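User: Can you predict the 3D structure for this chain?
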Amino acid sequence: MESRVGIESVSLAYKKIILGVTGGIAAYKAAELCRLLAKAGADVRVAMTAAAQQFVTPLTFQALSGKPVLTSLWDSASGDGMEHIHLSRDADLLLVAPASADFLARLAHGRADDLLSTLCLARSCGLAVAPAMNREMWAAAPTRRNLEQLRADGVSVLGPAAGEQACGEIGPGRMLEPADILAALPGLLGAGPLAGKRVLVTAGPTFEPIDPVRGLTNLSSGKMGYAVAQAAAEAGAAVCLVSGPTCLAAPAGVRRVDVQSAAEMRAAVLRELPSDVFIAVAAVADYRVDAAAPQKLKKSDAGLNLRLVANPDILAEVAALPGAPFCVGFAAETERLAEHAEAKRIRKKLPLLVGNLAQDTLGQDSAELLLFDDRGRHPLPRADKLTQARRLIRHLATLLN
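Assistant: Here is the predicted structure, written as structure tokens:
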């Protein structure tokens, strides 16, 4: 899977992380997460709820972390009964994974009736949660309200992912894979090269209606834009992803705004400004139907003539703004890549442009890219799109800083 590439490069050296584990079948994934955290150099302490211990034993986490597992308010290693105070005072992050629907509700309402919930309430470090629950529980109104409250309280919500669940149903609610959670942590800890920066990314295709059931679109899958958003978040940026219609889940720690048409994408981008960086990955339709039909057009032997008008050039408009962000463009060409891409960069006055051959990239899981900036060309040999996105973000950070 794309998301698992490059986790060996994640470093959490000397970071102190409290891993909270709540009850649910996804607790088995927390064991792998604990292993990855330790491998990345983190100092891990594990706190488990009583329900979590019904799925995985504390001994498992003790073996993986090398430290006794915390399970009760009343078992205090410090001897003064204040373990819930001492633990977070020198911690860098409290991460609850999995976070059940019940635990999210308790967090949102400030409950402190066991060790883990008390730790969350008494903490002096950041808090992140990786939800895991049935799709109906995830979609339920109380859960949505609780998540809204937690986000307003400054809690980072990682995921969930969509897919097959332990109950046999399919949909959103799966805990993110441990590798995905690990990759998001440097950004949460302010350890990345884009820490403190706001990054705005567009991704996916746009859809321009012809009538209520038909439209003009393209073959963009959104995979490259979503990978760029993930890589920027991993690098420590606060990322907003403005996405056209795709079937992809938003990367961990990324705020997504869904749009359909080029006009909607333009409006969303302008609303989200100002930002430090704007990365225009979306394959925005160059044209739209001048006047979309209000009712479904009927098939006719006479054929159909459509009058197309140009859509706004979102990237050029943003790049021309006073105090414009650092703008990165993408050029998907079918021939003479270097010539067309560099011409586009100069025409739009962009500090960085990413070129690729559309026939080798659209809908694919890998890509060969060529970066263009004022210093020349920088080839990125073919690799999966998340690896390419991480390379791009590293290059961008050097130019930005």
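DSSP finds 13 helices and 19 strands in the chain. The chain has two domains: 11-188, 198-400.
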